[in-house]
Design brief:
The protein has 6 helices and 11 strands. By secondary structure, the chain is of the alpha/beta class. The two termini are 23 Å apart. Strand 10 and strand 11 form a beta hairpin. It folds into 3 domains: 68 residues, no CATH class; 36 residues, no CATH class; 107 residues, Metalloproteases ("zincins"), catalytic domain (Zincin-like), CATH 3.30.2010.10. Strands 1-2-4-3 form a 4-stranded mixed sheet. Strands 5-6-8-7 form a 4-stranded mixed sheet, covered by helices on one side. It has a 3-stranded mixed sheet with strand order 9-11-10, with helices on one face.
Length: 237
């Protein structure tokens, strides 16, 4: 089941419903993720109206967090992850749950990422390894589908740590994608994939490249702005 979300303006809330809950609640976790807690029978309209009445509080919380991170020069949250913390996969937030034993180190179940308890000490490394494996599989399929649709053919594909770059296209026609891309929403992942595929036909960021990119993605400029502004917020790893 796809985790429920609610967007209000530029804010994106993750919704958690519970049969045991009797009132509405709102929390901002340490990574800046917004959570709405609600009884199962709460309508989306009522939930949105309730949340809108608390937007000022949310913006204040986020501003305080950003100020604190700027003051310390922090560029990423490297604090230890614990049970209940959230990470993103394909733009959806999944809460971490430690289990005593399971068939694989990490298993996605509903809105949870279940992790073997023995791996808690090196959780970030386990999550990164899982993202890299998923990236080769899922991103590889997405790249192949998109390349076929656009009539482009990369010579090879791989998932790597590219630092601050989302992707790269080598002179030999190989497409490389950052494993962190898998945390982004599909719309932004597709923007990166199409951008790199366009380099197969237009290697430089010149007028010809922009023309081709806009022909593939008419809203490319808006997507790129969204990627620059919103993209880093999805990176928990």
């Amino acid at each position: 089941m796809t985790p429920e979300t609610l967007c209000i303006g530029e804010l994106r809330f993750q919704v958690r419903r519970s049969a045991r809950r009797r009132s509405l609640g709102l929390t901002v976790d340490r990574g800046g993720l917004l959570w709405l807690h609600a009884p199962v029978d709460t309508t989306t309209e009522d939930l949105e109206q309730w949340a809108r009445g608390r937007l000022l509080w949310v913006h204040r919380k986020l501003a305080l967090r950003d100020s604190a991170r700027a003051a310390t020069g922090a560029v990423a949250d490297t604090s230890p992850l614990t049970a209940g913390d959230s990470v993103f996969y394909l733009g959806q937030a999944y809460r971490l749950k430690f289990v005593a034993s399971q068939a694989a180190p990490i298993i996605r179940a509903g809105n949870l990422l279940c992790v073997n308890s023995e791996g808690q000490a090196r959780l970030r490394a386990e999550l990164r390894a899982w993202m890299e494996i998923e990236g080769v599989r899922w991103l590889g399929q997405r790249l192949d589908q998109t390349a076929r649709r656009l009539g482009l053919r990369p010579t090879a594909f791989d998932v790597r740590d590219l630092g601050h770059r989302w992707g790269s296209c080598t002179e030999e026609g190989q497409i490389l994608l950052n494993w962190r891309v898998l945390q982004l929403p599909l719309r932004l992942i597709d923007t990166i994939i199409v951008h790199e595929l366009t380099h197969l036909a237009s290697p430089r960021h010149d007028a010809e490249f922009r023309r081709r990119l806009n022909s593939y993605l008419p809203d490319a400029e808006a997507r790129e702005r969204e990627l620059n502004v919103s993209g880093p917020g999805y990176l928990r790893l």
